[in-house]
Each structure stands twice: as structure tokens, then as C-alpha cells.
């Protein structure tokens, strides 16, 4: 027996004719498509009279001819309490316009492979509106040919959101679409909602999951009057951000904020002293222009870096490089002549970072040199001591060639590192800095200009700007 609609007639029209008419009106005023390969959408889930226009602006970014074979619709549970994620696999969804086919085999495989984290109890979905209200929009744009994977998130921690993202990662690829169902602030007044929702949106488009958690905690600590939550589907958004947070991978992702409104913008029914906020945000997928290294090549470079740090901490030099030079493990990638940075962290805090933007030294030798410099010659830190070397996290960033730009709109946060140069002064940020800090583009440029190049917050405006990408190892 198929799942019957829980909120037809309240959140959206209950008949096919009325629903089609309302959707048509909503899409007439929706934000125009911006183009690009849409990997995911962040969409509100309130009644259409309040959030339908914002939702239409999100779904309007989809190309109806796109061959999405599978759509993951992910939301946070509103009505039932349970732990982890719950995938609906019991039946299909009956809707006023027809049947939404559920990809039961995908859901069942997730439950089978991750039994301690993902379940399939249909009672978890009983009465839930967060997933259901997205389906008419989806059907309006894509019509037929896809199936859905409905995923509800119950009680989870940010760490469990990361694990759920790892479980979903094989499906976060071309041919699949992820729809994240969430409203933003609940129940502050109009002005407070606009301010809080802007802060939350900026954290999301910055691309850093950790930064989003910090901003949500900060919003809560501000004691905004009547603010119940600043993101009811925070766990679903966090899962998406963990999926997209992959600098140096085959694909890179950028966020685009499309439209904002809150329930107070409805002149007939909205009350401005108690509102709910809505953002439409798209996530675009692009091919990374960075290098791709095999798992074996990455293992070799990591080993070289760690041995170099350990040797430097003890006052020596790493062993084995001369033997490697005459061995068969030296692939063309390991002999590349390119820039590289080695970043050291201890318990998540920066402990050293030095590198070169370009070099004539083969990569495997350059990694050894730069790892030693990061351990012992970063002027911001004391040299690494022998007893702490084993505690360090080591990150290797292999740089693409620099590309000069004329317009800062060419910079994509989370994908591009920047090099600012004015005379003899230079400043550089790796792409992951924008992700870790959650900075806006202006902040990214300003901090690099002032803190790295030493030419003032606005100095970048009269400097030479270059971008690059990295392969993260």
C-alpha cells in the first residue's frame, strides 16, 4: 500500500488541477536559471502560501531535460524521535498528480551496509511534511524518468552527519540530484530573522561544515528574542556540506544563494512579529582542474612528508629518498615540477605551513624539503619537538600553475587559492582557507592582502591577482 499524502490540502492543494495552477503561478515569478551542473538544492518546506515562491526559485535552476535518474530528498524529522537516518523503502508515494517511485533497492543497500546508523522504519516518516512538499516541485520540472530516495534524519551529532555523508558519497555524482529540505529561523521578529538568516546563509555558502556549526551555536548564544532555531534542517544541510567539502577531488562545488523571504513577506497572512525564514540555495558541480594522484602515489608522498618531519624534529634528514630515486616507484606524477605546500596541524590547530608556488625540483624531493621547513622554519611557531611529531596531522597541497585574473568574480571560494603580489610584497591563501574560515570573498581578499602581503585591507585592488587550484593529499 503506497504512502498517502500527509499534508495535501493544507501545505499545498489536494487536487491535481489546483496544484498545477499554483505551481505554474509560482514558477512564473521564480528566479531565472543561472546555468551550471546542479548537484544539490537547499529548499524551504513550509506551506506554499509562505515559502512556495522561494522553493520555485530553487527548482527553477534545474534543466528539465537533465537525466537525473535518482533524487535524494533529505530532511530532518519534525514529528517522530529516532536515532540516525531513516530511509523510506516500504512503498511508493501517492501524490495528487500520480505516483512518485521510490528507489527501494538503494535505500535497502544503505540500511544493509550501515545498520547502526541507517534504518528503514516507515513509522519514522508518518505525518512528515519536509520531504513530501518538495515532490510536486520536482515533478513539475523533471516530470518522469527519475526515482526518489527519501531520507529523514533523527537525533544525530555533527560527527554522525559526517558519517552519513560518507555513506551517501557514492551517490553524490552526476546523474543524481540531492534536495535538502529546511527552513531557516523560527519565530523571531522580521528584522531579527533577516539578520540571523543572513549569517546562517553566509556560513553555508562559505562551504565549511565546522563554520556552520559555529554560526548556529553563535546564533543560539545571542539570545535573540523568540528564536527557537536558526536552521530546523541543520543536520540535512550539514550532510550536504560534508558531501561537497572535498578540495582537491575530482569535482569541486560552489554555492549560489538565489532568493530569500520570510513568512512576514506575505501581505495577507504574514505576521512580522513572529516569522519563519526561507532561503533557496543551489550547489553547482564542476570538474576540478587540479591534478589527480593514485592512492599509491598519495601514500608515498605522505610517507615522505612524515619521515621528513620526524627527522627534522630530531635534527636529521629523512632516509630512503636516494633509494626511491633509483627505484621503480617514481611515476611521472611524483617527478612533476610544480608548487607544493605542507601544512602541519596539532589537534586541529595550525602548527606550521610553508611552501613554494613553483619549483624546478621533482615533487617527491620538494615535499621532503617543504615538510622539513614547515616543521622547523615557520617563524610563527617554535620548531616541532621530537615528542610531538607523531601527533601532527600532515596535509600536502600540490598546486596547479598560477593564472592571472582581472576580475575577482573569477575567484570561486573553496576551489581557488589566491596569490596577491604588489612589488616585492606577496600573500597567498590555499583554497581550504576559505572553507575553514567561512569568509566571504571580500574577507578572503582582505585578510590575504593585509595579513599575508602586508599591503592593507584594500591593497589587493591595486595589486596583481592570480588564482590556482590544489590537489589535496
Tally of DSSP helical segments:
13
Residue windows where pLDDT falls under 50 for at least 5 positions: none
The overall number of domains is 3
Distance between the termini: 49 Å
The strands making up the biggest β-sheet line up spatially as 6-3-7-2-8-1-10-9
Q: Any idea of the CATH class of the largest domain?
A: Alpha Beta
At the fourth level of CATH, the homologous superfamily of the largest domain is LigB-like
The overall pLDDT average reads 91
Give the beta-strand count: 18
**CATH topology descriptor of the largest domain:** Protocatechuate 4,5-dioxygenase, Chain B
What is the name of the CATH architecture of the largest domain? 3-Layer(aba) Sandwich
User: What's the alpha carbon Rg, rounded to whole Å?
Assistant: 25 Å
Q: Biggest sheet: strands, sense, closure?
A: 8 strands, mixed
Helix content: 25-40%
Q: Rough shape?
A: globular
What is the strand content?
15-25%
Structural class: alpha+beta
